[in-house]
Amino acid sequence: QVQLVESGGGLVQAGGSLRLSCAASGSISSIPVMGWYRQAPGKQRELVAHITTGGSTNYADSVKGRFTISRDKNTVYLQMNSLKPEDTAVYFCNADVKLVQVAGSYTFWGQGTQVTVSS
Known about the structure:
This protein is an all-beta fold and 119 residues long. 0% of the residues lie in helices and 63% in strands. The strands form 2 sheets. Strands 2, 4, 5, 6, 9, 10 and 11 form a 7-stranded mixed beta sheet that branches.
């Protein structure tokens, strides 16, 4: 039905930057909301940021002023600056999708991409 393919993770030193991308494809009518979550070892998955088709954004307090989410149609980006060791986690793309000829919205997840920030 829908595939979310992420890219851009990696290893970076504290203070550095990374840019994550996530492209959605499949039987998509629209994607009202796309976002990024992260999960660190031993912790629950948490929202990092999300963005609507209208461009409204929401950020976790821990990343405000450092991360910027943006999107271009069915691709969402996360620009991460001033990275800290505590940002180390697996980052997951998330999309609430309206499918072609199917009522309702459905949530899809990417496979996750590792971000490691060394001190």
